User: Which sequence fits this backbone?
């Protein structure tokens, strides 16, 4: 089950069905069957951005207008030559940041690709946007920072082999506060980085 929310509803992806639940009483206000399994959802400015997986090499990102419940645009992802297969998405500043083993930026207004990074060592978690940077953590414990406008790598940090902790990366995603990037490590450690 995948969730996104605004002030009016909680949007829930359940298999191939997108449901809008009333925030006051939890009742379904509308639902829409989609062409595949819902992989991830992000919401911004009246639009739901939805990763739909219809098969091994058939993944697409769609922009669904919540007022009309119609798809504004659809962008297929490929495993070679085109944009990467989408795994996790985040929307910020009219851009959609999507990951798998690469990080890519897509124009949220029309679905055109803006940039993508080289392939990295492992699957990446949800992108986190702060200031002019996009942060992503890999499943293998690498933390990467990229310029949000160009996709250029600013730097990386190996958290898995951090001699200060010696712990494996926790399953929790990093979060950003006003002035710190908070990264859970193991069951007893939290690393705070000033971006």
Assistant:
């Amino acid at each position: 089950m995948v969730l996104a929310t605004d002030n009016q509803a909680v949007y829930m992806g359940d298999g191939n069905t997108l449901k809008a639940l009333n925030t006051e009483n939890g009742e379904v206000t509308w639902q829409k069957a989609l062409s595949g399994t819902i992989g991830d959802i992000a919401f911004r400015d009246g639009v739901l951005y939805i990763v739909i997986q219809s098969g091994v090499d058939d993944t697409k990102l769609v922009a669904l207008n919540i007022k009309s419940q119609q798809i504004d645009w659809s962008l297929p992802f490929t495993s070679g030559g085109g944009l990467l297969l989408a795994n996790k998405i985040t929307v910020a500043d009219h851009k959609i940041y999507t990951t798998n083993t690469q990080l890519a930026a897509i124009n949220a207004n029309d679905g055109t690709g803006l940039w993508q990074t080289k392939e990295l060592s492992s699957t990446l978690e949800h992108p986190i946007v702060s200031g002019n940077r996009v942060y992503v953590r890999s499943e293998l414990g690498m933390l990467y920072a990229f310029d949000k406008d160009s996709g250029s790598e600013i730097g990386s940090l190996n958290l898995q082999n951090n001699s200060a902790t010696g712990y494996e990366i926790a399953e929790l995603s990093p979060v950003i506060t006003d002035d710190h990037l908070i990264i859970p490590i193991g069951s007893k450690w939290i690393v705070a980085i000033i971006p």
